[in-house]
Design goal:
about 1450 residues; mainly alpha; two-stranded antiparallel ribbon
Length: about 1450
């Protein structure tokens, strides 16, 4: 082999570009090196290698940049870059040879044994690499028989279409001899590429320096993968069967030709053509599998590969004449290829051919080809992703354009509506259609997929219904996509199972329940509520009228539905009311007397706006306006004499509606609802006694229900008694009795006292024999006297026998199991300790004469890490505390810490020293919890130090618990203490993010109290380190004068104003909408999500908090942000085309609303006169979500007296408290006008410019006519018989081998609605294998059809889709429809004189793939397939699923 031929790649190198022969390399002298390598002069071998590595790294970067520029440069620049690239490659080879020479000279002979043999044994490497292998060089497949063959590899090759069958056959022998390709090797084996391809395309042993390798490691991995993928792609494109040569791929790149000496990339011929095909299919399968592995590992390679070449090699594997595994592998590879920037365009138009027909064919196969269908669905999924990535960010939902055509979507629709059990992909198809709906609603509309989604939403799985409902709500929001739904008929399918339930039977109950849940989803969303209010609230009135239907199941389902719609939560005592029992006695025995609460002086704060209540107020007004109260009263009147509970349930709902109206609605509307004219008429009807009984009993039930509500409802945890509250008489009496008992106990005489001591039976060793009640009375009364302590404990055996029971060392109390009966001994022990420390005598008894505290101190000291190791039988082990009443010792110590004497005792016995050390224990958090929970922190001392030490523990779980306890302690305190707030602020600087977040949450809740907020602001904490976590707390600081000045001085206000003006306003919109969606959701899966906690109150807004202070109002006025907001509202208030503008408009509206929610900010709105503009947008905005935003903003404005007064001038009424203060609940006076939805005209389905001439053969016309009739269920049987006759006759059988007829059939089934079995039947009629040549012929037929129409002057008539067989499958005869269509077509033809009116603009909504055949006026067409059927016709297999 010549020296200038690379032995690895087989590519000849040019010696005039810096290359040197091997002999020259070995004879380089130091002088030559100084002349050629001046950079290496004076350096040793190691330094020279490092220097050469740096030079090599630089040259590699130049080479990579040049290769990248080749993809984008013009011809002139391309020639310059190619010249520089050749020189750079030559320089790289020169540097590598120099590095190899230095290694050989510098390393000892034995050191080369462990290194890769790259230069030291080139001939061996060459012989090993070329032994029996087929190499893939940079230009294609080649069999290196000699050096001449390798030298010829750079010669251009002829086009693949010119390869003869003989040359292809001759090359198969080489593939048979290739190990790993056709010899049973695993397709997933990564080493197959190394066995099949040249080492130039496989990663080779490293020969470069360490610095160069480290710098270019990732780059080389990508380059190697790209080179390997390109080699596989070229090999795949070159594998062509003899039967595929009529479909030459269009490859325009010059460097993909094989060497001129090899006429084909394949070797010797095989024995038979079938064998050759099998071997080529196997080779394709492995090549496609290897490509998939590369693309799966490296996403960048997918984008840089030659997509045209890949499509060329892929298309032959998609045909019917390929094995199933090949088609699956081809679809799988195609899924990765469409990720290329040109992939979707090539898929839809590859050299004039639509590859979507392969998908149509694959999706029409039966269930045995499930794996192939799955790969097709994944390919469609990839096309959808590619389309969504191309979608502009400001495009509204449903307005983008996907790289899918109608033929593919209709194939998906046919699978989605097939209800057979064998259809495993039905729900996958439904979900895919829903996603296409959200991206390209017009495509779904033209493909008649909306009907399938609506039907699935009504009758499909319950878990899919909310998903589809939310998808349709997104479409309804925008006017551009809303027009594709027929208002009053489409989305109302969701409520059909409820409104049409009469006479359905018991089997329809589950369907009604699912439909009722769907109705709740619609009514609990703003867009759904507006949509159902269209046409004078016809849909809601239909739901209300269902209560008048005499069906128990239906009525109960609808009642439950309204309970959920109005957010009425059932309580425990509802069942008592429904069962007919009295509520006056319910639950009295369950309520224990509450402990006495000291009067606390509090200042009532106004209730903040609740967005959920604002929405529910509107829903309540809508349903009552639709006649809910009248329907309930009619139901009660009808069911008064029955034993069913529905009457009481209706009464309960009636009472709840009246209560909600009294709480939420404005006074005029609430008073109108409370009047209940019909019910009072029934109660005052003395002519019909039954009516009077119904009316009076219902009113009495509602009155009893309301009177007992306050007693039956559980009080809120955070409720506080007012300073002038009057205690319950029963509680006052019990307290007086207890005080009398204590006074009498202190006045006992000595004899009675001694008798009581004897009656306790303490002398008995068994504590179960003791009289617990007498013991409790003794320590509650007599032992409060120091004299009795001396007599009973110090000078009597009573104390020496009683107290040892609680000694830890006695193992009596500490071994009691934790049961309900043993808990009383814990209470008695706490009572004894607390009683003794109240007197000096008792304290001295515990200090000097009793060993309880000493013994307990020693038990705690066992766990002191500074003292000794704990014993295994200690009473304070974790298991012992969990299973016994040993936890009671913590409560006893807590009783000691409440008094000064007790604190002295604990200090004396060194409890606090032990507690300090216990906080360092990592795995005994139970001890630390018990100590922290029970200590009293009223007095400044050791307990607070113990708490602070736990807050700063070395272990995060201890700090988390301590912070949680401290936060709850702060919230439960009746008056705020500076020391607790200071400790909580200290936790903001904890190293753990969880601890900081927990502290911020507690501080936010605590700062709801104005006094607490004042104390925290005075401490002036630094919260910059918290980032986003501290923003809510800082917003609260802004609402006070001191806090705003503090933040203004730190430049926080300036920075945040800029951030909110540009970014955070829109983030606030997303936050509020997510919160509202969660609060109004009915999905149990979402309700269980604890990530978002929303109580309905509007989140704090920067501008809303700013205007609560005078300085904030002044800063806002100076910045001019409010003027910018109002200008944007006036300018873009009614825009709907740009989603970015819509989002910004919402953010501006929320900012203005929050500004107007305070007394200081409402003046901004009044001065700018923006309130009437917001009201106008709320009434007439084309985007429904904008109207909802305005509705909530109006509620914010109505939370001030001045705002409510302004809104009343524009027809909005506000709910107020008994004192006349606005609550923020504001609704329009004219509900029907506000909820009115503008009507629209649904676009007609019109034909585009697809022109198909009349078929020449009468038999073909009859066949296509019969295929068209298959979509009509009335005449489908006759059409199938016609097709069967044409198929069976000898003289007409040949038409089903015509690709022209196949082209017409494919267009027909892809532009009209056909069920899956019909599509399958129609395609299986043809005796044509759907493969690449057939696809080429289909494209040719389509082109010829258009050319013929141009020559004959034909034109296309817009075919309006008014017929049932197109849209909803109306059972209508095709005789009249075809005749009517023909008459309309001829009439329009005569009007235009057979010429197209180019001046008319096409309709914006059309189906470009709908063909309309235009026939001459005098041509008579015989309609086939309409022979008179017999009286008894069996259903054909055509209409059944396989």
């Amino acid at each position: 082999m010549p020296a200038n031929v690379n032995t690895v790649t087989g590519i000849a190198t040019r010696g005039d570009k810096g290359g040197r022969s091997q002999g020259d390399e070995r004879s380089v002298t130091s002088g030559d090196g100084a002349q050629e390598w001046p950079e290496l002069v004076g350096l040793d071998a190691v330094k020279q290698l490092e220097k050469l590595g740096e030079m090599l790294q630089k040259e590699v970067k130049i080479r990579d940049g040049a290769e990248h520029m080749l993809e984008f440069g013009n011809k002139t620049l391309r020639r310059q870059v190619e010249s520089q690239l050749e020189a750079t490659k030559a320089q790289i080879q020169t540097i590598q040879r120099k590095m190899d020479q230095l290694r050989d000279q510098s390393l000892p002979a034995g050191a080369l044994r462990g290194l890769p043999s790259y230069t030291s044994n080139r001939n061996a490497t060459k012989r090993k690499a070329t032994a029996g292998l087929t190499f893939l060089n940079g230009n294609g497949l080649a069999t290196p028989a000699s050096s001449a063959t390798l030298q010829a590899s750079t010669s251009p090759r002829p086009p693949l279409g010119s390869i003869s069958t003989n040359s292809a056959a001759d090359s198969l022998s080489t593939l048979n001899n290739t190990p790993g390709i056709l010899a049973g090797s695993s397709m997933a084996d990564p080493s197959a590429a190394k066995r099949f391809f040249a080492p130039s395309l496989v990663p080779q042993p490293p020969t470069r320096s360490r610095s160069e390798s480290e710098a270019t490691d990732n780059r080389d991995d990508y380059k190697a993968a790209l080179a390997q993928a390109r080699g596989y792609s070229r090999a795949l494109a070159s594998l062509t069967k003899p039967t595929e040569l009529i479909f030459p791929p269009n490859i325009h790149t010059e460097d993909r030709s094989p060497p001129p000496g090899a006429s084909s990339p394949l070797g010797k011929p095989s024995s038979s053509g079938f064998g050759r095909d099998v071997e080529i299919e196997q080779a394709r399968l492995e090549l496609m599998t290897n490509l998939v592995q590369i693309f799966a590992r490296n996403k960048r390679v997918r984008r840089d590969i030659d997509a045209v070449e890949l499509f060329t090699g892929l298309v032959p594997s998609l045909g019917d004449n390929n094995p199933v595994l090949n088609r699956i592998a081809a679809y799988r590879l195609l899924r990765y290829v469409v990720g290329h920037p040109d992939g979707p365009d090539l898929f839809n138009d590859f050299d004039g051919k639509d590859l979507g027909w392969f998908i149509v064919r694959s999706l029409s196969r039966d269930s045995r080809h499930l794996a192939e269908k799955e790969q097709v669905f994944l390919l469609i999924r990839a096309l959808i992703d590619a389309g969504s990535e191309r979608r502009p960010l400001n495009t509204p939902a449903g307005c983008s354009s996907l790289p899918l055509k109608e033929n593919v979507v209709r194939a998906i629709v046919s699978i989605a509506e097939m209800e057979e059990d064998t259809n495993a992909l039905r729900w996958t198809a439904v979900e895919m259609l829903a996603e296409i709906l959200l991206l390209d609603v017009e495509l779904i509309y033209r493909s008649e997929g909306i009907r399938v989604l609506l039907q699935t939403m009504a009758d499909g799985p319950p878990e899919l219904a909310p998903v589809l409902a939310n998808a349709f709500l997104s479409i309804i929001d925008n006017p551009r996509t809303r027009i594709f739904l027929k208002v009053g008929t489409d989305l109302e399918v969701a409520i059909s199972n409820v409104t049409d339930a009469y006479g359905r039977g018991e089997g329809h109950v589950e369907a009604m329940k699912a439909s009722a849940r769907l109705v709740v989803t619609l009514l609990r969303s703003w867009i759904g509520l507006l949509y159902l209010c269209a046409h004078d609230m016809l849909a809601i009135k239909s739901l209300v009228d269902v209560l008048r239907i005499p069906n128990m199941d239906t009525r109960e389902i609808v009642l439950d539905m309204f309970f959920e719609v109005l957010n009425i939560k059932p309580a425990d005592w509802y069942r008592t009311f429904l069962d007919g029992r009295r509520l006056t006695m319910y639950g009295r025995q369950k309520h224990a007397p509450a402990p006495e609460l000291e009067p606390v002086e509090t200042y009532p704060e106004p209730e903040r706006l609740n967005l959920v209540d604002q929405y529910l107020a509107l829903v309540l007004a809508v349903v009552t306006d639709a006649g809910l109260l009248e329907a309930l009263i009619c139901m009660i009147e009808e069911l008064s004499g029955s034993s069913s509970t529905l009457s009481r349930k209706a009464t309960l709902l009636l009472g709840e509606v009246l209560r909600a109206a009294n709480r939420l609605l404005p006074l005029p509307l609430a008073a109108k609802m409370q009047s209940l004219p019909k019910l009072f008429c029934l109660g005052s009807d003395y002519h019909k006694g039954q009516n009077r009984v119904v009316g009076t009993s219902t009113l009495a039930s509602i009155d009893s229900f309301n009177r007992n509500r306050s007693r039956l409802q559980t009080p809120l945890n955070d409720s506080r008694n007012r300073a002038n509250s009057v205690d319950d008489p029963m509680r006052r009496g019990q307290r007086q009795i207890e005080q009398v008992k204590i006074k009498m106990a202190l006045q006992l005489d000595d004899r009675t006292f001694q008798l009581m001591l004897g009656d306790t039976q303490v002398g008995n060793r068994d504590h179960t024999k003791w009289n617990y009640e007498i013991l409790f009375d003794l320590f509650e009364g007599p032992f409060l006297s120091g004299k009795r302590v001396e007599e009973g404990l110090r000078n009597n055996k009573f104390g020496r026998r009683l107290m040892p029971f609680w000694y830890p060392s006695s193992r009596r109390f500490s071994e009691l199991r934790k049961t309900k009966s043993n808990i009383r001994w814990v209470k008695l022990g706490c009572l004894i300790v607390s009683t003794l420390v109240k007197t000096p005598e008792g304290a001295r008894f515990l200090l000097h004469e009793d060993d309880l505290l000493k013994d307990l101190s020693e038990s705690f000291a066992q766990f002191d890490p500074w003292n000794r190791n704990p014993t295994s039988d200690s009473i304070l082990t974790k298991q012992h505390i969990e299973e016994t009443v040993s936890y009671g010792y913590f409560e006893m110590l807590g009783q000691l810490s409440k008094t000064s004497r007790g604190m002295e005792l604990m200090e004396h016995f060194k409890f606090f020293n032990t507690f300090y050390h216990l906080s360092d224990l990592k795995f005994r958090e139970d001890l630390i919890k018990g100590i922290i929970e029970n200590l009293d922190y009223t007095v400044d001392g050791h307990p607070r130090i113990v708490l602070s030490k736990a807050l700063t523990s070395s272990y995060k779980h201890i700090r988390l618990y301590s912070t949680d306890y401290l936060g709850k302690f702060v919230l439960s305190s009746k008056q705020q203490n500076a020391w607790t707030l200071r400790l909580l602020l200290t936790q903001l600087y904890d190293p753990s993010q969880e601890v900081r977040e927990l502290a911020v949450n507690f501080l936010e809740e605590a700062c709801e109290n104005r006094e607490t907020l004042r104390v925290v602001v005075e401490m002036q904490p630094t919260l910059d380190h918290l980032g986003e976590l501290g923003h809510p707390l800082l917003l609260k600081f802004m609402s006070t004068d001191a806090g705003f000045r503090y933040l203004y001085d730190t430049e926080y206000i300036e920075k945040e104003m800029h951030a909110w003006f540009h970014e955070r306003n829109q983030q606030y919109v997303v936050l509020v909408e997510v919160y509202l969606s969660k609060a109004l959701t009915t999905d149990p899966a979402e309700e269980g999500d604890d990530l978002l906690v929303f109580d309905g109150i509007a989140p704090p807004h920067f501008y809303g908090e700013m205007v609560k202070t005078e300085l904030g109002c002044q800063v806002l006025a100076e910045k001019g942000h409010f003027s910018d907001f109002t200008h944007f509202i006036r300018q873009h208030g009614f825009d709907s085309d740009d989603s970015d503008i819509t989002m910004k408009l919402k953010s501006v509206l929320w900012a203005v609303g929050n500004i107007g929610a305070s007394e200081g900010g409402i003046s901004f709105l009044e001065d700018d006169e923006i309130i009437p503009v917001i009201i106008e947008i709320a009434d007439t905005s084309p985007v429904l979500s904008i109207r909802g935003t305005c509705f909530f903003v109006i509620g914010l404005i109505a939370s001030t007296e001045q705002g409510a007064e302004i809104l009343s001038d524009y027809g909005w009424t506000t709910a107020t408290t008994a004192l006349g203060l606005p609550t923020g609940m504001c609704i329009p006076v004219d509900i029907e006008k506000f909820m009115a939805l503008p009507t629209w005209q649904t676009p007609d389905v019109v034909g585009g410019d697809r022109r198909l001439p009349l078929l020449k053969s009468q038999h073909e016309r009859d066949a296509i006519e019969a295929i068209e009739n298959l979509c009509n269920t009335v005449v489908a049987n006759a059409a199938s018989r016609t097709l069967a006759k044409l198929k069976s006759k000898q003289e007409t059988r040949h038409i089903f081998s015509s690709t022209q007829l196949l082209h017409r059939a494919l267009h027909t089934i892809s532009t009209r609605r056909y069920r899956f079995p019909v599509r399958k039947y129609a395609l299986e009629l043809f005796d044509i294998k759907f493969d690449a040549p057939v696809l080429a012929e289909l494209a040719q037929h389509e082109h010829q059809a258009y050319e013929e129409l141009k020559l004959t002057g034909g034109f296309v008539i817009g075919h309006r889709n008014h017929h049932g067989h197109h849209t909803h499958g109306t059972r209508r005869s095709r005789h009249s429809m075809k005749a009517k269509s023909r008459r309309q077509s001829n009439a329009q033809f005569r009007q235009t004189n057979g010429q197209e009116d180019e001046g008319n603009q096409p309709n914006a909504f059309f189906i470009p793939d709908s063909p309309v055949v235009v026939r001459p006026k005098d041509t008579r067409v015989r309609v086939t397939g309409f022979e008179a059927p017999d009286q008894t016709l069996a259903n054909t297999l055509l209409m059944q699923a396989d």
